[in-house]
Amino acid sequence: MSQIKYFGLGLFLGIIIVGTVTAVKAYLTKEKVLGESAVSTATLDISTTPQSALLSFEGVTPGFSSGEKIVTLKNTGTADLKYRVSVEPTNVSDNNDLYKALEYVLYEYDGNSQKTKSLGGEGFLLKDLQDVEIAQTLDSGQEKNLGIEISLPQDAGNGIQGLTTNFKIIFNAIQKDGVF
Amino acid sequence: MFWSTNKNFLASFAVAFALLFFLPSISYAFFTKDIFVNGNMVSAGYWYSYDFSTPLKASYSVGELWSAKNFGVLYDNLAQDLSGIYTKDEFIESLKDAAIAGFEVVGDAVYLNSKQAYTIINIRYLDNSSKNYKTVFNYERGGWRLLGTKEIE
Predict the structure, then answer these.
(1) Which of A56, A91, B19, B73 is deepest in the core (most CB within 10 A)?
(2) B9: nearest CB among A10, A47, A171
(3) Nearest CA to CA, how far is B76 from chain A (Å)?
(4) Residues A22, B20: contact at Cβ < 8 Å?
């Protein structure tokens, strides 16, 4: 019983203290009029080159590597941004054993087209490429490359012969100081 | 003594603090934009010949192709009487939603004559159910090609 009483007392005092602090912060203010001000929002926009079909390969067999394919990302808005990358099968039927067997490597580049980092490699499955944050940010107007390489491992099963998978690469951009 | 021993008091204070200060902050949002690079495609070639040299080996090949949902290669190994009914795309479309977990060939092949035989294939589904299929093969094009399946008890 006394514990319940203390709990209630604690809750009451907590609310009083926090509320008082809030109220004091609210009332002890000073106002000064500076005349007309203008506020306009920044724009956040991004584009890619190419816009489609970055990766398109037929007749691949175990041991296949696409080699590095470059996509150029450009910040076409006024706000600086950062971004992350995901891959999704286009349709449910594309989420097949071929899609699940493909591996990937990402290569990051700085503004001088110098390779700065690679992510992925053996054992990194394309299907698991989800919300991977890229360390290279894009300031307004800036463009940078991102390299993507996909491969089919040597031990890919015979069952994936003749299969086809279609997928999309998703770039999810957010303002530079934002939190995904 | 009061402050050090009464955990309820401290807990309730923490709850009040969290409610008044932290919870509103999670409603903050940022500008975001998603763009898509569509039209990416990979198709696998062929590097292994499935064995259709006997009805039993053909049964395992059919089971493997069925389990892998590789209905394109399965279509290539149909008997003509069956492949003549469907186009390849129609065949793949009709089977694409099959939720298959695995298979087992039950018993040996039964020859109906020198050109036709059947086996029993047990297909296990993702919902843990299973069904037996009488799987009939015709000898065509130098191998035993799938003529059809029929569910049996």
Answers:
(1) B73
(2) A10
(3) 10
(4) yes
d(CA B141, CA B125): 31
> What distance in Å separates residue B114's CA from the closest CA in chain A?
29
Say how far apart CA A73 and CA A143 lie, in whole Å.
Answer: 5
Write the single-letter amino acid at B58: A
Q: Best residue in B6, B17, B35, B40 to probe A by mutation, most A CBs within 10 Å? A: B40
Please state the domain count of chain B: 1
Question: What ipTM did this prediction achieve?
Answer: 0.77
Residues 6+ apart with CB under 8 A from A171: A46, A48, A73, A83, A84, A85, B34, B35, B36, B37
- Tell how strand A46-49 and strand A103-109 pair up: unpaired
pTM for this predicted structure: 0.63
Flag whether residue B65 sits within 8 Å of chain A, measured between CB atoms.
yes
Question: CA-to-CA distance for A7 and A17, rounded, in angstroms?
Answer: 15
The domain segmentation of chain A, as residue ranges, is 46-175
Nearest CA distance, B113 vs chain A (angstrom)? 31
Contact assessment for residue A29 and residue A121, using Cβ atoms and an 8 Å cutoff: no
The residue of chain B with its CA nearest to that of A167 is B40
What's the CATH code, domain A46-175? 2.60.40
B108-138 as b/e: b if 16+ CB within 10 A: ebeeeeeebbbbbbebbeeeeeeebbebbbb
| Pairwise CB contact (< 8 Å): A51 & B14 | no
Q: Which domain holds residue B129?
A: 55-152
State the CATH number of the domain containing residue B96: 3.10.450.100
